[in-house]
Design goal:
Layout: H1 5-10, E1 18-21, E2 25-29, E3 39-43, H2 55-75, E4 80-84, E5 100-105, H3 124-131
Antiparallel strand pairs: 1-2, 2-3, 3-5, 4-5
Length: 134
Amino acid sequence: MIDCIFCKIINGEMPCYKIYEDERVLAFLDISNDANGHTLVIPKKHFENVFDCDEKELAYLIKIVQKIARHYKEKCGASGVNIINASGKVAEQSVFHLHFHILPRFENDGLKVFPKLNQNSLTLEEIAEKLKLN
């Protein structure tokens, strides 16, 4: 995809700080440098988000996300990780190339990743009825 910044990184047209690479996946540090080790994990094949990614590629991608997360915990001193994906504009996706964020978490790092949400006006029963798969 011509205007995709992640495709440009994959093609070597833009630099990155690589953490992991194989024939299908690239992982690199997020340039925001907002959290120690904030990593983006992307497929080398362009998919816009989880909705258009085929199951085989998505399964492989999440396998690599887990591999990197384990490495951060077992070898890099992280106590845990946050794994985040935004799919779609209303979900606040800002780069329209499928990606997962891994934020290594350390004791007393001071990060607050999850927003505080207000109580929903629907009951859990109403929500479940609308959302359940048949």
